[in-house]
């Protein structure tokens, strides 16, 4: 990439930013112009502003709460030329408070009211989406070490690509950085570099990758090669997540480098035309910026955090009858719909509180494998659902709004990703500091010439610490660590000056023993922690092994004509459900009473005695079995 050709100003001059007043925090608000409306409800303006003051850097959990829902905002695009020409009616209304009203399509249908974190009307600008969708807050969190994702979902032609990267053609020529049409990705990059420039105490390293999932194949958009060779998606034991093997990542020292990644990927992504969109994305794309930060913490310890932000532009769901897709476009549409269906099942399972802890079919598509962490793992996620206001798209709009409402119920547990060794060193360092403080307190208690207030303060501190360590509090004649006083009675520390030298010597000896006991306790705690970490590692490995086994079993099940395939949430499953009469099993292959019960076993035995085939098998399989049986019979 030629960097010199792509040099931009870090902060685009002349771009007006709407200031977010802190006083508007958590307020409902509507911004309207001639034909625009932007409703914001229950939305924390502080959190979406450019300040990182709210972030508690000392904790390893998400600052708002230890569990948080996926944020969901809706963007309604204006009617397009075709819809205007056809005098299509608008069926979407904006009552305010982050609500959206979808009018009934038929006279008999009731209007439906949905509620989200924010709703952007047709007149909302790209800058409005940047400031009020919460993406700025996500960028701050990514800088703090969280794993963040913004994904756009919606039917084909609803404005996903427009929202993320801008209108079509923007990247056909060298893009103008001042163009107000740039999407969220471009303006996020600018905002990100502004954030980084404010953090002089931290060293940042940025790397970016850009991939697409086209017909269930992962293609590197920064290094597609002439053959567009697909890359493998694998499970990482270390990060406990899926990753794309050999994906090209580019070091991005400057804003230019990030923008060059965006341009390059946009040029290489798969785009096609159908009757509902002339520039339809035929693949899902994931642009990831990895942000590694290194800052000095305490006593020369450096803390490294690995944050990231994913921008996911999903291909639009499409009704192939309406898009008139055929041939290659039809194959693409089927793959798009299939992977979106798996995503839908994952979202439905995750949002259903009754299914908490149940199986989530992430492994059924590449898209869900790569989004697993964003959907329910340790990430912070923002979903932008794009819809059309036109009556002709009523069904698709209703589906998207339902999908989005479900996603809103999903809770994730965001955590900062840190190097485990560094985290351990930091916590050990903190323990050592606490011990040193304790020593100082004890030493202070021994200083005879100290001012009168000194011993009383020391006594208070020691007593407080004793309370912290001992559940039942210090017992008379016994120090908090359990080391008894020589004569069984603790001395009055406020009268240290009156003590005899031999008593003081005894006391000093006692404090030394006390200190020794504390060190031992500390080292015991560390050994326990080490043992626990080892146990955890073993459990993880075992889990890993079982998952691999499960995958093997699945793949065997899917291949075998005898064993029914595991129900997967895919088009196949729906088809199978529709033709239930065709679903069959081979009970001879499975006679485990724990699965089928004793009655089932008896049935099989009686069926075997009667010589009847247990179930009607498909003809081709039955013929094959008969052939083999004949073969066996003639041999014998
Ligand atoms: N909010 C908007 N304001 C103005 N034009 C818009 C808006 N949203 C979408 N459009 C226009 O509508 C057309 C279709 O949008 P876009 O290609 O972004 O849809 P999409 O959801 O990404 O579709 P697909 O899933 O087929 O890729 C584009 O010409 C785009 O510029």
Distance between the termini: 72 Å
Task: Please give the domain count.
Answer: 3
Helix content: 40-55%
Mean pLDDT: 71
Alpha-beta classification: alpha+beta
- CATH-scheme architecture of the largest domain: 3-Layer(aba) Sandwich
What fold name stands as the CATH topology of the largest domain?
Answer: Kinesin
Instruction: Output the CATH class name of the largest domain.
Output: Alpha Beta
User: How much is the radius of gyration in Å?
Assistant: 32 Å
Uncertain parts: 1-67, 448-482, 558-597, 630-636
Shape: elongated
CATH homologous superfamily placement of the largest domain: Kinesin motor domain
Q: Work out the strand percent.
A: 15-25%
What ligand species are in this complex?
adenosine-5'-triphosphate
| Biggest sheet layout | 11 strands, mixed
Q: What is the total tally of β strands?
A: 20
> Number of helical segments?
17
Tell me about this structure.
- There is one protein chain.
- The chain folds into 3 domains: 59-170 and 180-418, Kinesin motor domain (Kinesin, 3-Layer(aba) Sandwich); 420-583, no CATH class; 587-635, no CATH class.
- It contains 17 helices and 20 strands.
- Mean pLDDT is 71; it is low at 1-67, 448-482, 558-597 and 630-636.
- The protein has 636 residues and is α+β, with helices and mostly antiparallel strands.
- Helix 4 (135-144) crosses helix 6 (184-197).
- Strands 1, 2, 4, 8, 9, 10, 11, 14, 17, 18 and 19 form an 11-stranded mixed sheet that branches. A 3-stranded antiparallel sheet has the order 5-6-7, covered by helices on one side.
- GO terms for molecular function: ATP binding; microtubule binding; microtubule motor activity.
- Residues 69-410 form the Kinesin motor domain.
- It is found in: Cytoplasm, Cytoskeleton.
């Amino acid at each position: 990439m030629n960097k010199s050709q792509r040099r931009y100003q870090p902060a685009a001059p002349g771009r007006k930013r709407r200031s977010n007043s802190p006083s508007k925090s958590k307020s409902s608000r509507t911004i309207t112009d001639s034909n625009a409306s932007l409703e914001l409800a229950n939305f924390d303006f502080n959190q979406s502003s450019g300040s990182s003051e709210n972030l508690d850097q000392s904790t390893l959990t998400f600052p708002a709460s230890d569990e948080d829902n996926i944020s969901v905002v809706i963007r309604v695009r204006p009617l397009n030329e075709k819809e205007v020409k056809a005098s299509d009616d608008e069926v979407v209304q904006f009552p305010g408070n982050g609500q959206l009203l979808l009018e009934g399509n038929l006279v008999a249908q009731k209007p439906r009211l949905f509620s989200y974190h924010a709703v952007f009307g047709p007149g909302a600008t790209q800058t409005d989406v940047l400031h009020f969708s919460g993406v700025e807050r996500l960028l701050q969190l990514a800088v703090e070490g969280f794993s963040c994702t913004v994904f756009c979902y919606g039917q084909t032609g609803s404005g996903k690509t427009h929202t993320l990267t801008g209108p079509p053609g923007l990247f056909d020529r060298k893009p103008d950085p001042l163009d107000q049409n740039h999407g969220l990705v471009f303006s996020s990059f600018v905002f990100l570099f502004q954030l980084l420039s404010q953090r002089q105490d931290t060293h940042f390293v940025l790397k970016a990758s850009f991939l697409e999932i086209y017909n269930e194949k992962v293609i590197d958009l920064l290094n597609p090669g002439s053959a567009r060779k697909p890359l493998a998606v694998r499970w990482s034991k270390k990060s406990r997540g899926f990753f794309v093997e050999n994906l090209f990542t580019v070091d991005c020292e400057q804003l230019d480098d990030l923008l060059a990644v965006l341009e390059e990927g946009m040029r290489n992504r798969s785009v096609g035309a159908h009757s509902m969109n002339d520039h339809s994305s035929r693949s899902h794309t994931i642009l990831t910026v990895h942000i590694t930060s290194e800052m000095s913490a305490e006593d020369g310890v450096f803390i490294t955090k690995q944050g990231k932000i994913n921008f996911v532009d999903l291909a639009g769901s499409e009704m192939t009858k309406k898009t008139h897709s055929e041939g290659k476009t039809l194959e693409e549409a089927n793959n798009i719909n299939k992977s979106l269906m798996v995503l839908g099942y994952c979202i439905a399972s995750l949002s259903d509180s009754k299914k908490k802890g149940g199986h989530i079919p992430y492994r059924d598509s590449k898209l869900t494998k790569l989004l697993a962490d964003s959907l329910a793992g340790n990430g912070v996620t923002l979903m932008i659902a794009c819809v059309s206001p036109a009556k002709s798209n009523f069904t698709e709009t209703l589906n998207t709004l339902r999908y989005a409402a479900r996603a809103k119920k999903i809770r994730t547990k965001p955590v900062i990703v840190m190097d485990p060794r560094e985290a351990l060193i930091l916590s050990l360092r903190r323990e050592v500091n606490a011990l040193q403080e304790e020593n100082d307190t004890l030493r202070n208690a021994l200083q005879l010439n100290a001012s009168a207030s000194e011993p009383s303060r020391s006594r208070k501190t020691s007593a407080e610490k004793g309370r912290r360590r001992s559940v039942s509090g210090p017992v008379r004649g016994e120090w908090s660590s359990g080391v008894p006083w020589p004569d069984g009675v603790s001395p009055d520390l406020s009268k240290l000056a009156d003590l005899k030298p031999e008593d003081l010597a005894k006391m000093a000896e006692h404090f030394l023993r006390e200190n020794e006991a504390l060190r031992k306790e500390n080292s015991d705690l560390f050994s326990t922690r080490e043992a626990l970490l080892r146990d955890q590692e073993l459990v993880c490995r075992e889990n890993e092994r079982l998952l691999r086994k499960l995958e093997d079993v699945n793949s065997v099940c899917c291949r075998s004509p005898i064993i029914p395939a595991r129900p997967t949430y895919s088009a196949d499953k729906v088809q199978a459900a529709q033709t239930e009469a065709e679903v069959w099993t081979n009970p001879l292959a499975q006679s485990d009473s724990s699965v089928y019960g004793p009655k089932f076993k008896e049935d099989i035995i009686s069926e075997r005695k009667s010589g009847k085939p247990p179930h009607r098998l498909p003809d081709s399989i039955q013929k094959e079995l008969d052939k083999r049986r004949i073969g066996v019979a003639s041999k014998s």
